[in-house]
């Protein structure tokens, strides 16, 4: 360093004739570059995200306080009237029940299965890549494709699932008609699409658990199930929490499955037996009743925060794991 | 070391049966993961009459191309494919670029408010943007973008996940010394980005690009809201096919096979990298 500094000073003079002003300017440009560039680099993200992500979210609150429809120019301010109507609306509570029911039916078994699959994959196996790719394959399939395929599989007359059922003596289940049967069918689609994805995320976390823990446990004679419950699950708890919360948020917003399963009825079946909250929003959107639809959106947001929060607390507190 | 060999001995003793069970389970899961896709190919290559057979048809028939022709007659499927390619490609490119830019700033540059802005980004990852869909639609009406691909591309140009993903990757994979060396050589920040950051970011950006492409390709709700059946994406066209008054399963599944196949092929070829990316992004999530 000591020898270098004078070198640089010595190298400076050739630039001198330009005068100190030019050097000052170069310094200023450099300062501006170092201080300003970071903001310039994050600016595209924040500008676009504010305009098309955050602003609509906030504006939903404003719209929800109006009797707002695209059919009129003038929108009348009605205060909390939409929310009052909403809380007395049976269809709203029906949609809330359906959302929670499908959410529980799809999320709980899915997580247990995903943990178990990740556990199975977390060991030296042949064809590891093949198994991982097949696990993620359903997730690559679009939701529209999934519902179209499963609607056929769950078809009452020619569906493959009813054919298998008929082999054991159960004939002609009308999957779309009952509350429980339709919720079961829709949950199956969600599980099929997301279990593998979540298993891979959990597997990534499991691979970071130190091997020595398992070796010590094996010597102490702990069974594999005990190891899974006592070592793996506690060690990957942050990832489990992450998966629980993202699955919850996803499950609260289920829309395409009930919409397409019911051959495109926005009511989610003739008796609204599987209309979810998102679908209820969409129904009011198609009626151009934007104020009411926005009010539902906000209620849904509140539900998501509450349910995600509750799940977070449950997962964090549970000692041995989810079981 | 002795503990290790003891473990191996224990494993070997109980290994056989348990191992076979593991493979059997995973094979069953693989089977059920592929079955619906396989079955949709079977149905797509039959005719509607064959569906009434007991037991159901289990191997593909010879009607696939006739059914595909019917798909093209019923909905503007070529246009839908073109639209989907354009939208997914443009969005994937933009997300890669903007996420790498912002990720570089967050991971390696010092500036005031950096932590607060990063926290805001991570926080918004958890907010379901679907809730803002009504004002977003009103915005598109104002801009006269409804029914056009602008409505799909512009709002999707950036996303919080991409920024988070690239920040994570660059803070791990890009040595700070390399940047300092570049500074000493007189590189401007942009020069650093161009000559040092971009080459280092390429593997992660490629994975992000593929993930984005797939998710935009499969996006359904927003395109359904802003587009018309006359100028659809693949998913909107598929849902039009599936929403006919008569349940024409063969037609629906022929379209599904056609719309899913490109993605499945890409995934089969690049699956290893894509999975690596998902698992990497997850570790610190």
Bulk shape of chain B: globular
The CATH topology of the largest domain in chain B is given as MetI-like fold
In CATH, the architecture of the largest domain in chain B is Orthogonal Bundle
Largest sheet of chain B: none
Query: Could you say what the CATH topology of the largest domain in chain A is called?
Result: MetI-like fold
Report the sheet-strand fraction of chain B: under 5%
What string gives the helices and strands of chain A in order?
HHEEHHHHHHHHHHHH
- The chain-level mean pLDDT of chain B equals 86
CATH-derived architecture of the largest domain in chain A: Orthogonal Bundle
The largest interface is: A-B, 97 and 101 residues
Number of helices of chain B: 12
Q: Helix tally of chain A? A: 14
Q: What's the SSE pattern of chain B?
A: HHHHHHHHHHHH
**Widest sheet, order of strands of chain A:** 1-2
What is the CATH C-level name of the largest domain in chain B? Answer: Mainly Alpha
Low-confidence stretches of chain A: 1-15
CATH H-level superfamily of the largest domain in chain A: MetI-like
How far apart the termini of chain B lie comes to 34 Å
Total beta strands of chain A: 2
Question: How would you describe the overall organization of this protein?
Answer:
The complex is a heterodimer of chains A (323) and B (285). Chain A contains 14 helices and two strands. Chain A folds into two domains: 18-54, no CATH class; 81-317, MetI-like fold (Orthogonal Bundle). Chain A starts with a helix and ends in a 6-residue tail after the last helix. Chain A has 323 residues and is an all-alpha fold. Chain B is an all-alpha fold. Chain B folds into two domains: 2-65, no CATH class; 76-243, Orthogonal Bundle (MetI-like fold), CATH 1.10.3720. Helices cover 75% and strands 0% of the residues of chain B. Chain B contains twelve helices and no strands. In chain B, helix 2 crosses helix 12, helix 3 packs antiparallel against helix 9 (189-218) and helix 4 (114-125) crosses helix 7. The longest helix of chain B is centred in the first third of the chain and has 43 residues, at 2-44. Classes of the chains: A mainly alpha (323), B mainly alpha (285). At the A-B interface, helix 2, helix 4, helix 5, helix 6 and helix 8 of A face helix 1, helix 3, helix 4, helix 5 and helix 9 of B.
């Amino acid at each position: 360093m000591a020898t270098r500094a004078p070198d640089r000073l010595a190298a400076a003079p050739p630039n001198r004739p330009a005068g100190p002003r030019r050097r000052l300017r170069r310094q200023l440009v450099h300062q501006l570059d170092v201080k300003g560039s970071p903001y310039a680099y994050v600016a595209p993200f924040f500008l676009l995200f504010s305009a098309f992500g955050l602003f609509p979210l906030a504006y939903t609150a404003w719209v929800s306080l109006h009797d707002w429809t695209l059919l009129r120019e003038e929108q009348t301010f009605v205060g909390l009237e939409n929310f009052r109507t909403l809380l007395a609306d049976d269809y709203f509570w029906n949609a809330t029940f359906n959302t929670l029911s499908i959410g529980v039916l799809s999320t709980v078994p899915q997580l247990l299965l995903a943990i178990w699959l990740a556990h199975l994959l977390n060991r030296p196996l042949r064809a590891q890549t093949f198994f991982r790719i097949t696990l993620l394959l359903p997730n690559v399939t679009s939701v529209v494709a999934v519902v179209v395929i499963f609607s056929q599989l769950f078809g009452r007359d020619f569906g493959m699932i009813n054919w298998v059922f008929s082999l054991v003596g159960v004939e002609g289940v009308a999957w779309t008609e009952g509350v429980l049967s339709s919720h079961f069918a829709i949950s199956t689609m969600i599980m099929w699409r997301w279990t593998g994805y979540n298993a891979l995320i959990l597997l990534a976390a499991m691979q970071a658990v130190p091997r020595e823990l398992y070796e010590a446990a094996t010597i102490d004679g702990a069974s594999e199930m005990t190891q899974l419950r006592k070592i793996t699950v506690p060690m990957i708890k942050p990832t489990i929490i992450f998966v629980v919360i993202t699955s919850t948020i996803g499950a609260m917003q289920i829309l395409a499955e009930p919409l397409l399963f019911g051959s495109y009825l926005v009511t989610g079946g003739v008796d609204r037996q599987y209309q979810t909250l998102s679908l209820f929003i969409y129904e009011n959107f198609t009626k151009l009743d934007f104020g009411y639809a926005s009010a539902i959106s906000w209620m849904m947001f509140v539900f998501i925060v509450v349910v995600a929060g509750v799940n977070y607390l449950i997962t964090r507190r549970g000692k041995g794991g989810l079981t | 070391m002795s503990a290790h060999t003891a473990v191996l001995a224990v494993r070997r003793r109980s290994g056989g049966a348990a191992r076979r069970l593991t493979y059997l389970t995973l094979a069953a899961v693989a089977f059920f993961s592929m079955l619906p896709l396989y079955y949709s190919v079977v149905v797509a290559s039959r005719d509607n009459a064959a569906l009434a057979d007991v037991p159901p048809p289990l191997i593909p028939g010879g009607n696939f191309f006739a059914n595909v022709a019917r798909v093209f007659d019923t909905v503007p499927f070529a246009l839908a494919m073109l639209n989907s390619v354009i939208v997914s490609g443009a969005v994937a490119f933009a997300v890669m670029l903007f996420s790498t830019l912002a990720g570089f700033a967050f991971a390696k540059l010092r500036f005031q408010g950096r932590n607060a802005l990063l926290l805001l980004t991570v926080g918004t990852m958890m907010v379901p943007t679907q809730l803002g869909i009504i004002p977003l639609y009103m915005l598109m009406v104002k801009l006269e973008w409804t029914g056009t691909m602008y409505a799909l591309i512009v709002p999707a140009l950036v996303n919080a996940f991409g920024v988070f993903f690239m920040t994570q990757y660059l803070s791990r994979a890009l040595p700070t010394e390399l940047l300092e060396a570049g500074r000493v050589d007189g590189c401007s920040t942009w020069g650093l980005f161009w000559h040092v950051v971009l080459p280092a970011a390429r593997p992660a950006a490629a994975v992000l690009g593929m993930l984005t492409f797939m998710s935009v390709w499969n996006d359904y709700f927003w395109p359904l809201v802003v587009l018309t059946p006359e100028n659809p994406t693949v998913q909107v066209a598929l849902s039009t096919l599936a929403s006919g008054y008569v349940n024409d399963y063969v037609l629906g599944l022929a379209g599904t096979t056609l719309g899913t196949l490109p993605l499945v092929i890409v995934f089969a070829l690049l699956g290893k990298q894509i999975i690596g990316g998902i698992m990497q992004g997850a570790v610190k999530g």
